Automatic annotation (TrEMBL):
Domain NADP-dependent oxidoreductase per the UniProt entry, residue ranges: 72-205
InterPro entries in UniProt: Aldo-Keto_reductase (IPR050791), NAD(P)_OxRdtase_dom_sf (IPR036812), NADP_OxRdtase_dom (IPR023210), TAT_signal (IPR006311), TAT_signal_bac_arc (IPR019546)
Example of a GO MF term: oxidoreductase activity
GO CC term, one of those recorded: cytoplasm
Annotated protein name in UniProt: Tat (Twin-arginine translocation) pathway signal sequence domain protein
A Pfam family recorded for this sequence: Aldo_ket_red
Keywords for this protein: Oxidoreductase
Domain of life: Bacteria
Membrane-spanning segments: none
Length: 205
C-alpha cells in the first residue's frame, strides 16, 4: 500500500511538473519564470528521484566498433540551439552532471547546434567523465566563421577538419561515434565512408 502511494505521488509530481514546464515555455519571460519556479518546487517535494534512475543498457555498433550505452540517451541540442528559451550555462552543466549521476552514459551533440556552442558546452560539462560516458557528434552541415550556411559539405577534407575541431571542443582524443547529419548531394557516399574509415584507423573515431 505504501509503495502504491509513493508511485501515485511520483506520477502526480511528474505530471504537474511537465504541465508547469510546458506552460512556462508558452508564457512571456516574466510569467514563465514564475511557473518554472513552481515546477522546481514541485520537483523537489513530490517527485520520487529514485524512479528517474536509468538502469537499462543497449549496444551501438557491431564487432570491434560496438560499445554499450544507457537505454536512454541525452540530446544536448536544446540547451543552446532551438527549443525556445535556454537555461544559463551553469544550470546546463548542473543538469548534464545530474544526468550522469542518474545513469545516462550517451550524450549527443552536433557541429551545427549553435553552431559550435553546443559542442563547447558538452565538452566543458562532460570531459571530467571520460571513460564513464560516450559523447557522439555529427558532421554534414557547412559552417563558416561560426555560422551555418544552409548548405551541406561532406567533402573528405571538410570531414577531417570538422573531426579535429570537434575533438578539441569536446576535449576528447577519439570520438565514439562521428556520423553524417545530412547527406551532401555533391559528395559520393563512398568518399564519405572511406574518409570515416581512415579516421577510425587513425584512432580519431
Amino acid at each position: 500500500m505504501e509503495e502504491n502511494n509513493k508511485m501515485d505521488i511520483s506520477r502526480r509530481g511528474f505530471l504537474k511538473t511537465a504541465a508547469l514546464a510546458g506552460a512556462a515555455m508558452a508564457m512571456p519571460s516574466g510569467l514563465g519564470k514564475v511557473f518554472a519556479s513552481e515546477a522546481k518546487q514541485t520537483e523537489t517535494s513530490d517527485v520520487d528521484t529514485d524512479a528517474a534512475h536509468i538502469k537499462g543498457h543497449r549496444v551501438l555498433g557491431t564487432g570491434k566498433a560496438a560499445f554499450e550505452v544507457s537505454a536512454l540517451g541525452f540530446g544536448v541540442m536544446g540547451m543552446t540551439y532551438n527549443r525556445s528559451q535556454h537555461p544559463d550555462k551553469k544550470e546546463c552543466i548542473r543538469l548534464l552532471h545530474e544526468a550522469v549521476d542518474r545513469g545516462v552514459t550517451l550524450f549527443d551533440t552536433a557541429i551545427i547546434y549553435g553552431p559550435l556552442t553546443n559542442e563547447n558546452l558538452a565538452g566543458e560539462a562532460l570531459s571530467e567523465f571520460k571513460g564513464r560516458i560516450n559523447v557522439t557528434t555529427k558532421f554534414g552541415h557547412e559552417v563558416i566563421d561560426g555560422k551555418g550556411t544552409g548548405r551541406q559539405d561532406s567533402r573528405p577534407a571538410t570531414i577531417r577538419r570538422y573531426c579535429e575541431e570537434s575533438l578539441r571542443r569536446l576535449r576528447l582524443e577519439s570520438l565514439p561515434m562521428f556520423y553524417q547529419h545530412r547527406a551532401d548531394p555533391n559528395t559520393p557516399a563512398e568518399e564519405v565512408a572511406a574518409t570515416i574509415a581512415d579516421l577510425i584507423k587513425e584512432g580519431k573515431v
